[in-house]
Specification:
Blueprint (H helix, E strand, L loop, with lengths): L1 E6 L1 H4 L5 H17 L1 E6 L2 H13 L4 H23 L11 H8 L5 E3 L8 H12 L3 E6 L4 E2 L11 E2 L1 E3 H7 L15 H10 L3 E5 L4 H8 L4 E4 L1
Parallel strand pairs: 1-2, 1-4, 2-3, 4-8, 7-9
Antiparallel strand pairs: 5-6, 8-9
Helix pairs in contact: 2-4, 3-4, 6-8, 7-8
Uridine 5'-triphosphate binds next to helix 1, helix 3, helix 4 and helix 6.
Length: 223
């Protein structure tokens, strides 16, 4: 299978624990032996910290986004380092570069591309570009909930949801730099228009990323 894996920054960068990045690299290398894999890495807390500082200094939202993108690319370099020879050494800055680097046969790891969306959107656009069979979104919750599970006790996790219903549940969310909440609209639009099978899993346990391929886990978005 051709798989695009999007890893939230808060999943990959946990308390600056580089050993955890090594655990993800092992799982990703294992997956890469059987599947053609592409990985997109998010910004996490370091991105939010930088965005908050640059915003404080008077930056525009676009500049804040751009600084966030730089951090996602630095995070991608961490994973590339942990993957060693398995990964292409450079982080592509756009989709054409990603496809070009992939021609080497090495695993491509990228971060953000341009302002005004999150790396979830990057993952779905990359999935379109490469014709992925599966898009896996590794996040820090078990799947998509009816409400924010960190704030509401009565939030219920959905095993399956259509892209259109998902847009309704996630409407009215914040779209400022550093706060593209759980799945941005661009990502859902792309999943819908290209009918990309997508599974959202809790990536805090690296094994869940593997399970997303063959087990009924997390939330499946039905295009
Ligand atoms: P993330 O993809 O990590 O955004 O990119 P997020 O959803 O806000 O953060 P998580 O998922 O909770 O970790 C970090 C920031 O980088 C900018 C945005 O400002 C985003 O919030 N960014 C990222 C872009 O503007 N374009 C991109 O393609 C990617």
């Amino acid at each position: 299978m051709k798989i695009v894996l999007t890893m939230g920054g808060s999943v990959l960068i946990q308390d600056n624990d580089y050993k955890k990045i090594g655990e993800y690299a092992e799982i990703i290398s294992e997956m890469n032996t059987e599947h053609k894999l592409f990985v997109v890495v998010g910004g996490g807390k370091p991105a939010r910290d930088y965005i908050s500082m640059v915003r404080g200094l008077g930056a525009s939202e676009a500049l804040c986004d751009d600084v966030g993108i730089d951090v996602t690319r630095l995070n991608a370099r961490l994973l590339i380092t942990a993957l060693g020879d398995v990964a292409y050494p450079k982080v592509p800055h756009n989709f054409m570069e990603a496809m070009e680097y992939s021609e080497s046969g090495k695993l491509v790891v990228m971060g953000g591309t341009e302002p005004a969306h999150s790396t979830d959107a990057v993952g779905s656009i990359l999935a379109e570009f490469v014709g992925a069979d599966l898009l896996i979104n590794a996040t820090s919750v078990d799947g998509l909930y009816t409400k924010d599970p960190h704030k509401y006790d009565d939030a219920v996790m959905l095993k399956e949801i259509t892209a259109s219903d998902m847009m309704e549940i996630l409407s009215n969310k914040d779209t400022k730099a550093g706060t593209y909440e759980f799945f941005d609209n661009t990502a859902i639009e792309i999943i819908k228009r290209s009918k990309i099978k997508t599974v959202i899993v809790n990536g805090n346990d690296p094994e869940n990323i593997l399970k997303a391929i063959f087990k009924n886990i997390g939330t499946t978005i039905l295009p």
